[in-house]
UniProtKB/TrEMBL annotation:
Residues 1-22 are annotated as: Disordered. Pfam families: Ald_Xan_dh_C (PF01315), MoCoBD_1 (PF02738), MoCoBD_2 (PF20256). One of its GO terms (molecular function) is oxidoreductase activity. Residues 31-142 form the Aldehyde oxidase/xanthine dehydrogenase a/b hammerhead domain. Residues 1-12 have a biased composition (Basic and acidic residues). InterPro entries: Ald_Oxase/Xan_DH_a/b, Ald_Oxase/Xan_DH_a/b_sf, Ald_Oxase/xanthine_DH-like, AldOxase/xan_DH_MoCoBD1, AldOxase/xan_DH_MoCoBD2, AldOxase/xan_DH_Mopterin-bd_sf. Keywords: Molybdenum, Oxidoreductase. This is Aldehyde oxidase and xanthine dehydrogenase molybdopterin binding.
Amino acid sequence: MTIMEPRKHGDASDGTVGGRQTRFEGNLKVTGGATYALEYPLEGLAYAILVQSTIPAGRVISVDAEKALAAPGVLMVLTPDDDLGLLVASDWGGNRPENQPYYPLPRQVQYNGQSIAAVVAESREQAVEAARLICITYEKAPHVASFNDTAAGEGKVMDSLTSGWGDAEAALAAAPVQIEGEYSTPREYHVAMEPHGLTVKWDGDRITVWEPSQWSHGMARSYSEWFGIPYENVRLISPFIGGGFGSKGAALAHGAVAAFAARKLGRPVKLALTRPQNFTNYGGRAATRQRIKIGATEDGILQAIVHRGASETSTYADWPEQTGAATPILYKVENFSSQHRVVPVNAVTPGALRGPGKNPSAFGIESAMEELAYKLGIDPLELRLKNYADHDYQSGKPWSTRRLREALTEGAEAFGWSKRSHEPRSMRDGKTLIGWGIGCGTFPVLQAPSEAMIRILRNGRVEVVSGAIDMGQGTYTILAQTAAEVFGIPVDQVEVHLGDSRLPGSAIAGGSMLAGSILGAVHKAATAARDELIGLALNDEKSPLRDTGANTLTFSGGRIAAPRDQGPSLTLSELMAALGRDEIEILRNTLPEGATAQEQHQAWTSMAKVQGPTMGEYSMHSWCAHFAEVRVDEDFGTVRVSRIVSAFDCGRLYNPRLVESQWRGGIIMGIGQALLEEGLVDQRNGRTVNNNMGDYLVPTNADVPHIEVISVGIPDYGASALGGKGVGEVGIVGVAPAIANAVFHATGKRVRDLPITLEKLI
Ligand code: MCN
Ligand code: MOS
């Protein structure tokens, strides 16, 4: 457990919900005071490293480990010949095949860079050296390197992602104006600063895992199921995470290998993935392509959208990167048809990366909308406002709140959009072409049950306790603000304990659902604890507040008193002392009353109880509009993003400082997606060529311009207990098309395949 000491900042209202409190754990992270999963100095550590396949498809015939086993310091070599005796764990939904063996080091090779052996030694250097001595013989099979290979075929249609209404083909054919384009995005990777890895230790049949995690409870469940031990016997600890962006939501094969080795050796084991291994041990964003056809009237009223998309998946699991995720909800259209396919290739199964689905989807539809605007000679802002969706045409439900119109108009105002001249190549500064473009974005509101414990201590401090995760978004901080507000105390009187699967159950820090979900639980528990304290203070004969005759108490400025200052006022610690209480502890969850232990376990360790955006009466989403300015060198085709203004509707903001940082972080990732990021695959062997941070380019400070962010949201109490909508992911959605649209405006060249590199412009 970790106790956070916030730095004092600004005035007291910063420490309440809606305040601009700085990050509780920020100081620790930047001063080296935060301990990460690979930094626990356990006694007797052994070091594991993975050996990966060098072919993209086939079978391991034999592994000759003789030399490796004889090398200095080597304790163990694991290969496909070893039956680790593990069982397959549940999937995200909490479903589990019965008694199916799990092979984290499989004989069947499905992709280049798949883990097939592991070496454990006294030191990491010895393990690395021994791994070099392992000799693997393969039987190769033909492979499909990417979904652009002819051998890849068309893939399979995902029925669950097929949607439509009206008669899209007929309306398209009848529309006086039509545009059509194919848009594609490459493989993209999380490249979080902190690589994956873990430290793991057994005590009898109990296991402790220090591992960066977006979901302590969900990952603990996988360990318990792999090893056939009770859930209670697993403790997954993850108080600090150096970025996850979707990659740290699930326990992975390397975790199983390290845990197995630790048990077998009777020693704690540390396993760190190398940076290249971080490109193949789990999947990034799948490569996508989509064809969009839009039919419209001469004056720009949409008549039909026909969308056909595809994304890469692996040969052993289906992961759809839904290219049609944003298409149906951004605009008003009476005739719509969308279909998505997955195409198996020899690569690791892709995964969630900030804004999954919505992100590539927005690249398609938002590029296409501007293509239509130029074809019609209409201002792209005007075209969007003309086709504003007054309700969700897909679900037929009203929006809970949708301030996209305000985002567009207020963003345009702040950007100075009205000064734009419409024609491409019409704005320049000497040899520099200037272009402006818009991209809208959206992300659904997901809601999950959560649990939290509040402890009021005799020393007047309040503890907030939850197994929830802070990977940098600000969970520690907003939980403290919520409790501080309920008890009317300064925020530095609150301690927050997070990141431990032994602590109360929580939603995943994923799908931008944690803040709204966990604050509901914290607020409920804190209010209940306050009510209990009020009850004691008014009724206990030892209480100085008993004789006030009041029927409630106020909590403010760190003091508790009867309303209208009747009688004394006490601090929390004075009241606790007067009552003779050491502690008041309250646990609350947001499940329906009477949920069984089994249902609770299911709620914290699976996605079974997560509510989608249209499961209730309304359709609930966050929204944004990005305005980008680019400057393109006319001779060299180099693109600089020189300015971004983005306006967001994320409902109520629990902490605007942190929200602005989330939005900016997403926008910066969007700049990378637009101009730099691209996982390159060697067609001959299916290998990711640029599997390191030197060659897989992400934006540096020099690539990032001034970014102005604006909130246009209003509280949405349908979306969450405290009125906020999701913040963490929507920021990246729509940035890449805004930049692509700006590049078109600057140069007259439409780049439909990301990233926009200079050779595509000259
Ligand atoms: N917040 C707020 N008001 C709201 C909603 C959120 O003040 N109405 C602020 C809070 O500071 C909260 C943060 O925004 O902690 C994010 O809240 P939310 O949108 O609920 O997202 P989650 O807490 O579920 O975080 C996950 C989300 C996802 S899915 C990815 S991917 C992502 C992201 O957060 N990865 C991140 N932001 C990240 N930020 C950092 N630093 N590192 C990552 O890996
Ligand atoms: Mo975020 S990609 O849902 O962790």
